[in-house]
Amino acid sequence: MTQRLAVVSGGIGGIGTQICRRLAEAGHRVVATDLGGDPERVDAFLDGLAGLPVAFEPGDVGDADDCERLIADIGTRHRPVDVLVNAAGITRDARLVKMERAQWDDVLRINLDAVFHLCRAVVPGMSERGFGRIVNISSVNAQTGQFGQTNYAAAKAGMHGFTMSLAREVARHGVTVNCVAPGYVDTDMTRAMRSDIRDQIVAAIPVGRVGSPDDIARVVSFLCEQDAGYITGALLPVNGGMFMSF
Ligand code: CAA
């Protein structure tokens, strides 16, 4: 089997780390990217995946120039990118009337602009080589909206339109572009919520529990397989039944 190179943004986050693990176990060489400001966090990440072909390259995905630099550096130090998983994401929850401009801008920049920057950097090479897999990590809250998340839901819903449009543009070049939309997953992001609000949300999940990072990672890994080439422009909900639609 050809060993592909996969880049995971937000790679040392809760869901990102598990995506790195699954992709590496599936035979990819993996480069996680994230802010590199906390060396202890990076070391803990790499130690946790010791023995797997996973490297770390620091980058600020909210910065267009840094995204270009990052993808060029990965091409030189490792090999060209075959698989891109956009898992970098932040929340800055507040009701609209209380939301500061910076809370809007930061969420749109990291959760949506970054997807444009990274895809812009990898898509020409993927198209030229005739193979690519792009998976964008969205959210159930893009489908339902959520109290206090006008910024986050707008960014993630924007990701859906972006995904379908890009999927059409690159389908003939062997590149697929899909979204995975997690529900509430056990990560620092959901742990940071007010516990009474989180408990109320979790109580309403049909499956009866929050998701695990691996619930998400295994679906991402499936979409990145060579044989998943007929799935493109799709949104796969992985939300324990929180939102059902067809
Ligand atoms: N539904 C209805 N009313 C709500 C509410 C809710 N979820 N949350 C707060 N309110 C009401 C309060 O009852 C209160 O009403 P009164 O003034 O009539 O008493 C009023 O709103 C308080 O307003 P505040 O602006 O002061 O709200 P707050 O600071 O207490 O809480 C919030 C705001 C932090 C955004 C809170 O609503 C909240 O945590 N919402 C959920 C956000 C959420 O789900 N985030 C997910 C993070 S994880 C993630 O995003 C991953 C993923 O993809 C799923």
Q: Overview of this structure, please?
A:
The protein is an alpha/beta fold. The protein has a single domain (5-185, 214-238), classed as Rossmann fold. 47% of the residues lie in helices and 15% in strands. The protein has helices spanning 14-25, 39-48, 64-77, 101-129, 140-144, 150-170, 188-191, 195-203, 213-223, and strands spanning 5-9, 29-34, 54-58, 83-86, 132-137, 175-182, 235-238. Strands 3-2-1-4-5-6-7 form a 7-stranded parallel β-sheet, with helices on both faces. Helix 1 (14-25) packs across helix 9 and helix 3 (64-77) packs parallel to helix 4. Acetoacetyl-coenzyme A (CAA) is lined by residues 91, 93-95, 98, 139-141, 146-149, 152, 182, 184, 189-190, 193-194, 197. Acetoacetyl-coenzyme A binds at residues 91, 93-95, 98, 139-141, 146-149, 152, 182, 184, 189-190, 193-194, 197.
